[in-house]
Write a structure and sequence with these properties.
The chain has 605 residues and is α+β, with helices and mostly antiparallel strands. 25% of the residues lie in helices and 32% in strands.
């Protein structure tokens, strides 16, 4: 294919604005997939994506498009996720493109994540094709939303396209605009090979598959290739493209997107962001690659069966090949045994990883309560990073603790602004600025964008649910890391039957620590099963007990067979029972169920 007839583009939008449906219609219109093989969300190939109705992994597909003038074009489309937790997938996809189709829902207008994706595309200097989607819906206001796009993003009004991904209206206009407005890829097919690895996965038969965007040169099967940063050398088994299933081709040339089956069995042999080149006569300098994703949420993952520890390690290795933002390292817990401390981009990302580990690899898991990463200055001047409550030094060894704060952007109708402000300020949020996105219509229907600074630990668990509840579902949320700021926090330990359950420890603000301790002990009293002896549940900060509850013993009625007679016989039986319970308490162990670890998440409720 002539390089001038290649177009590489992504579809970007806020969650649920119609990206995957638009991709379906483009695939259908270009005849990439036979009509009998078409299905909804064709590019969402994971069961989890179909069940939840969201895109989790960016997915590529090559479209063959014939323009009105009869010229044939190769369109490489990358469909991207919309949820803020998967923004890293979006950034990687955009780095492999020259343009982006910006989709905005005609019933909802610009949302918080819309702007976040636009800024990423503009930072990479990509050509934008703005599309107002769902124009056929009863509540659609296409003209108002189009004006909103013009006012907020600053595009030419004549460039805004109107479409319905569901019915297929306007899809051909979008493809025509992509050919006209997105520039062809720059690159020299005769130069030494340089290909950017933008994703990868493990195949049991072909080894590691690396997904590449060829910048310079040509890749063919049989060449000796090398990954420049890892230093891994291999001869590819096959070279191919996505249609959207893997399809073998003779070669991938400059500007094209495809995959290389490396045959490598070690999952650590390739990394996303690496540069693929020839072993002999290769490129002298690698491509810039990607800035590593910064994990924001940390939790422990432990196998319910201790014998499956090695299976969990293998599963994490293979999953991290497919998800470069997942971080993990071994750790051990007195309560749970051996497991891994994992870093995630957000709570949804954590939930998806846990479900994939259980479904795709068959490993049953226990997950500890999530926490954030703190920077701690010790009294001796040393700086340490703490992502697990058990690692937080004792209070007398801490000079200063700093916690991550996020810049959050909330888009909402003006009538819900008061409820949103109350929610954010109740989570220690600080107001930054307020901007009206439109000024037409009723004052309460005008949409505003409010920006705040808030601690990540406060918006981690149920903040999004509360935001949707207080705005009747109309508000949208985007957030990004701002800075580490000083915090007054302490470690809240939980003791069950006198033993500290390290997996239940949490880091909480000092001024609410006692109240949190009382809530947690009350919750655990209901969740921990009764034993044949009293089980004390205590919450402690340092060496100070701040709350206590007791799970009362199950008591057998040893006097049932006594129907009268001397009272000393009854007393003797009761004393024997008391002594037996005392012995049992000394040697007995209390099993803490999975629900107890999740109770830490529900303290605010």
């Amino acid at each position: 294919m002539d390089q001038a007839h290649i177009r590489n583009f992504s579809i970007i939008a806020h969650i649920d604005h119609g990206k995957s449906t638009l991709a379906d219609r483009m695939i259908e219109l270009t005849g990439t997939v036979a009509a009998r093989a078409m299905q909804e969300q064709l590019l969402d190939q994971m069961d989890l994506e179909r069940e939840k109705g969201i895109t989790i992994k960016a997915q590529a597909v090559r479209l063959a498009y014939r323009a009105a003038d009869g010229a044939d074009y190769e369109l490489n489309l990358i469909d991207t996720p919309g949820h803020v937790d998967f923004a890293y997938e979006v950034s990687r996809a955009l780095a492999a493109c020259e343009g982006a189709v910006l989709v905005v829902d005609a019933t909802k207008g610009i949302q918080a994540q819309t702007l976040a994706n636009v800024y990423q595309a503009l930072d990479l200097d990509l050509a934008l094709v703005p599309v107002v989607n769902k124009v056929d819906m009863v509540a659609a206001e296409p003209e108002r939303v189009a004006q909103e796009i013009v006012d907020v993003i600053g595009v030419d009004p004549n460039e805004v396209l109107f479409a319905s991904a569901k019915s297929g209206q306007g899809i051909n206009d979008i493809l025509t605009a992509i050919v006209a407005q997105v520039p062809p890829p720059a690159g020299d097919p005769q130069a030494p090979l340089r290909a950017l690895v933008f994703d990868s996965k493990y195949d049991a038969y072909k080894g590691v598959l690396v997904y590449v965007r060829v910048v310079d040169g040509t890749i063919r099967a049989g060449q000796q290739l090398r990954l420049m940063q890892q230093g891994t050398r291999f001869e590819p088994l096959e070279v191919g493209c996505f249609r959207p299933q893997l399809e073998v081709v003779q070669a991938l040339t400059a500007g094209q997107v495809g995959y290389v089956a490396t045959g490598l069995k070690g999952v650590g042999d390739s990394r996303v962001g690496d540069t693929l080149t020839l072993e002999r006569g290769g490129a002298p300098e690698p491509l810039p690659g990607y800035r590593p994703a910064k994990a924001m949420v940390f939790a422990g993952l432990y196998p319910t069966d201790a014998d499956r520890y090695s299976d969990l390690r293998d599963a994490l290795e293979r999953l991290s090949l497919n998800d470069a933002s997942l971080q993990w390292q071994p750790e051990s817990s007195v309560a749970l045994g051996f497991g891994f401390r994992c870093g995630f981009l957000g709570l949804l990302h954590m939930e998806i990883i846990q479900e994939r580990l259980e479904r795709e690899f068959g490993v049953a898991l226990i997950a500890t309560a999530p926490s954030v990463e703190y920077e701690v200055t010790r009294t001796d001047g040393r700086e340490v990073v703490v992502d697990s409550p058990s690692e937080l030094p004792a209070p007398n060894e801490i000079a200063e603790v700093r916690e991550p704060w996020m810049r959050i952007t909330v888009t909402t109708p003006a009538r819900y602004l008061g409820a949103v402000m109350e929610l954010v300020q109740g989570r220690r949020g600080r107001f930054e600025k307020l901007e009206y996105l439109d000024r037409g219509g009723d004052e309460g229907d005008q949409r505003v964008m409010a920006e705040y600074l808030a601690p990540l630990s406060e918006i981690l668990v149920d903040f999004y649910d509360q935001l949707k509840s207080r705005s009747q579902g109309y508000a949208s949320l985007d957030y990004q890391f701002a800075d580490y700021l000083p915090a007054r926090v302490a470690r809240l330990d939980v003791m069950v039957n006198g033993d500290v359950v390290d997996a239940l420890s949490t880091i909480v603000p000092v001024d609410v620590a006692a109240a949190q301790g009382r809530k947690l002990t009350v919750a655990l009293r209901e969740l921990i099963p009764r034993q044949l002896f009293d089980v004390p549940i205590q919450a402690a900060i340092g060496g100070r007990i701040v709350a206590r509850e007791t799970v009362r013993a199950m008591r057998k009625n040893v006097l049932a067979k006594c129907y009268g007679g001397d009272v000393t016989r009854k007393r003797k039986l009761l004393e024997a029972q008391k002594a037996g319970k005392k012995r049992m308490k000394m040697v007995g162990s209390v099993e803490v169920p999975q629900e107890a670890f999740m109770a830490v998440l529900k303290l605010r409720e």
